[in-house]
Give the backbone structure.
Amino acid sequence: MLNITQFFACLAALYVGWRTLRSFLAKSPLDNIPGPESESFISGNLEKLLDLRASWQYQLDLVQRYGRLFTIHGLFNAKWLYTYDPLALHSIYIKDQDVFEETDIIIA
């Protein structure tokens, strides 16, 4: 019989395994958009992006290298879309907000 700790450990292992397998098998439209390579499987590019001392310079370097639209890697190498385009932001947040889906993290 599994106790509660083993149950949650199995759930966590299944989730990580599913995310890993999904990243290799399923293709995303974000695969066609350039961006920096992931620095870590667990944290992706978030360590540099959220660094209090160097994040602004890192973001400026990314914008200069990739332009106003690129992908970064989030937790467990999930691809995130990063845009710096005011027209695209207006379309996403104001004009066509019902067209764009919100992720589970934003909804929760």
